Structure formats: structure tokens, C-alpha cells
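Field reference: sequence -> structure
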Amino acid sequence: MSWFSIQKSNHKDVKLSEHKIDKVHLKYWEECIDKSYTPKYQKHLVSFMPNEVNELFNSLYL
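Structure field:
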């Protein structure tokens, strides 16, 4: 599993967020993600982006 975010250049660090969902994600990350693992290949299987966002992302980053 992986995730990424697209943010403005003046974004705030998620570690400083007061939002409950951010705190839950950070707790999960600290407890469950093996930071020493480096994948050699990742295959994208599922995207939860709306089509409009996905199309924009593809036009900008692919």
C-alpha cells in the first residue's frame, strides 16, 4: 500500500495537523509501515481519485 498527496507549495506538514483523520493516518504509519523496506517495483492497482482528478494528474505528471 502506498499513498501520496498533491499539495500547494505552501502546504502545512501533516504532522502539525489537528485533524483527527491525519492523526489516525500518522499513528498507523508509525505502527505498521516498515520504513526499511524499499520496493523494487510497484504496480498501481487501484485508484480512488475521481476521473477528473485522475485525468488532470496524468496530464501533469505522466
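Note: Helices lie at 20-32, 51-61.
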